[in-house]
Amino acid sequence: MKFFFLSITLAFFFVSCSNSVQYSEIKESEPEAVEWTWVSYDSDDLQFSGRISFDNGDFALLSWSASAVTIAFVGTALEAKIRTNGSAYLDVFVDGEEDPSSVIESQALEKEEKTPVVPVVAKLPYGKHVVTLYKRSESNMGDLYFYGFRVLGRAEKDLLPAVPKRKIEFVGNSITCGADVLLPDQSVELGNIYESSYYSYAGQTAKILNAEAHNICSGGHGIVLNYDGSTSNLLPVVYNRIGAKWRLNDQWDHSKWHPDIVIVNLGTNDFASGENDSASFVDATVGFVQSIRSYHPKAKIVLLDGPMLVGDYKTKCRRFLNAAKKILEKKGEKNLYRFSLEPRGDSPKGFVAHPNKEQAAEDAKKLSAWIRSEFGWE
Fold first, then answer.
1. What is the DSSP letter of 27?
2. For residues 229 and 277, what is the distance between their CA atoms, to the nearest angstrom?
3. Residue 105, pLDDT score
């Protein structure tokens, strides 16, 4: 399928399913008059992935990275009614594609503008198709309000792909979001278009392991200090929300989805901000793990240090995480693990640039291999 880029004044995304169905044109010829049909956001004909909220209006709220909506239909074209409150980029996957065939850029609407219906795919061969909208940009940049699809044809629930049996929740900062992962080189001016949760280590790990993923990640957030040196809206606080910028009383109900594994990437922003107090970092990590455990009693929790810290920062971060693990195990925690993603290069600042697409893919291979070995996942 030919790649195209579309810039519009709203936002939406969607997720690639690795166990895809077989797609083929139906045997009968195309009807003379295929009609447009409406599939509402709350229809059973849709399949969602991620922390999706249906309690904030007449739409489904997709805020976090890697949130997605999938539809199966018999027809030739698909449109979506969507808007955003910021800036967002969405990947479009068609019929089991390994990589997105198109990207939609979305910007906030003016107050007087009505929510538009936006083309997603068009001029497909008449037949069976599965399309996923995948939110590749992070919650910090904007939320997606999804009202529904318009199908030139009819939705077919029975054609939806099977939901993966394994579930992984990734918790972290910009590395988990895939910030700059698509940056061509370090001389290029940074921009949201270069962020992709799909090509982050988290997205690629989920793909390799064929796992449904929730990416609860927000650039610049730490466990004790944020990147800008602030101490408000730290990662343990943001973790409980339906979106990074939502109010404290808009809490996510953790009982709706229980992961098999929770991978928590901690430390990068704390040390980038100059955090060196072991007691506060360790205490905060212990408290956060205990909070996660209260929500997910059976999950395996992995404390991960990412590939950006180098030198003394890397050494201290790992020592602090190991200390937190030891304290938790003394308190009776039995399902806690450690894993490290190795940095590339060195820097006098104590941290290096975000991983690019190829580096994130290597990190995903290493993490996936460890998960398979440690937990017996085939």
1. S
2. 14
3. 83
What residue ranges do the domains of the chain occupy?
4-159, 166-375
Higher pLDDT, 205 or 278: 205
The architecture in CATH of the region 4-159 reads Sandwich (2.60)
Say how far apart CA 56 and CA 15 lie, in whole Å.
Answer: 22
What's the pTM value of the predicted model, to 2 decimals?
Answer: 0.90
| Residue 164, CB-side half-sphere exposure with 13 Å CA sphere | 23
Q: What residue type is assigned to position 374 of the chain? A: E
Residue of 144, 142, 233 lying closest to 192 (CA atoms): 142
What are the structure tokens assigned to 316, written together? 């201290």
Element (H, E) at 121: strand 117-121
Determine the CATH number of domain 166-375. Answer: 3.40.50.1110
Beta strands 336-340 and 4-8: pairing type? unpaired
Taking 70 as the threshold, does the pLDDT of residue 138 lie above it?
yes
Phi, psi of 87 (to 5 degrees): -130, 135
Taken in order 36, 37, 40, 44, the sign of the CA dihedral is: negative
Closest CA to 47 of 86, 10, 77, 20: 20
Is residue 360 within 8 A of residue 178, CB to CB? The reply is yes
